[in-house]
Design goal:
The complex is a heterodimer.
Chain A lengths: L4 E3 L2 E4 L5 E6 L6 E7 L5 E8 L2 E5 L7 E4 L6 E5 L8 E8 L8 E2 L3 E5 L1
Parallel strand pairs in A: 2-11
Antiparallel strand pairs in A: 1-3, 3-8, 4-5, 4-9, 5-6, 7-8, 9-10, 9-11
Chain B lengths: L2 E4 L4 E4 L4 E3 L1 E4 L5 E7 L5 E7 L5 E4 L2 E4 L9 E3 L8 E8 L8 E2 L3 E6 L1
Classes of the chains: A mainly beta, B mainly beta.
Chain lengths: ~110, ~110
């Protein structure tokens, strides 16, 4: 079965540094998402992306966050100046033309901000 | 706003035991309901779904029925296996394409032989 791939699987960074989390969605999918899960808490929606623009975002997704699909295959999440509370597992997902009828998730990037 | 509440874990069972993981939701309109599973070291995978009241989703021996009157979508399996050990997430979404999924906290299931 096709899969969503995320890199790196673990990322450690210093507070205040910029990080870029990378995702390669399934090739014929049209909708792309970022979610995160802080340890012991719910999986939280961050942002959805369709037709080269953000279609929906949550309150978490403030000015420190941005997303990009730079080359038609990668989908990236950038955190401009990381904070301790950004430490979480970040999941990328994609879905086909039917929207979130079925989301395919990557295995996640564990971000640790020190 | 919309939300999902699922039972706290961990749930520890012996092989062949009956499993229930409770999930209730709060939503406006008529959301679709999902159960996702996350096996160790892997991403979230769709386990089953239901898109309207009284629908029953089923997969790999797991079942869940969309109960509008009790706003519930409890996950059940008659006889669990060690390989079912994973984290299970209940989720809902609106029916518009691209609508975000709202997840519960997840319930860890451990099955021993």
């Amino acid at each position: 079965e096709p899969e969503v791939t995320q890199t790196p699987s673990h990322q450690v960074t210093q507070m205040g540094q910029e990080v870029i989390l990378r995702c390669v969605p399934i090739s014929n999918h049209l909708y792309f998402y970022w979610y995160r899960q802080i340890l012991g808490q719910k999986v939280e929606f961050l942002v959805s992306f369709y037709n080269n623009e953000i279609s929906e975002k949550s309150e978490i997704f403030d000015d420190q966050f941005s997303v990009e699909r730079p080359d038609g295959s990668n989908f990236t999440l950038k955190i401009r100046s990381t904070k301790l509370e950004d430490s979480a597992m970040y999941f990328c997902a994609s879905s086909g033309a039917a929207g979130n009828e079925k989301l395919f998730f990557g295995s996640g990037t564990q971000l640790s901000v020190l | 706003g919309d939300s999902v509440t699922q039972m706290e874990g961990p749930v520890t069972l012996s092989e062949e035991a009956f499993l229930t993981i409770n999930c209730t939701y709060t939503a406006t309109g008529y959301p679709s309901l999902f159960w996702y599973v996350q096996y160790p070291g892997e991403g979230l995978q769709l386990l089953l779904k239901a898109t309207k009241a009284d629908d029953k989703g089923s997969n790999k021996g797991f079942e869940a029925t969309y109960r509008k009157e009790t706003t519930s979508f409890h996950l059940e399996k008659g006889s669990v296996q060690v390989s079912d050990s994973a984290v299970y997430f209940c989720a809902l979404s609106g029916n518009q394409a691209g609508t975000a999924l709202i997840f519960g906290k997840g319930t860890t299931l451990s099955v021993s032989s």
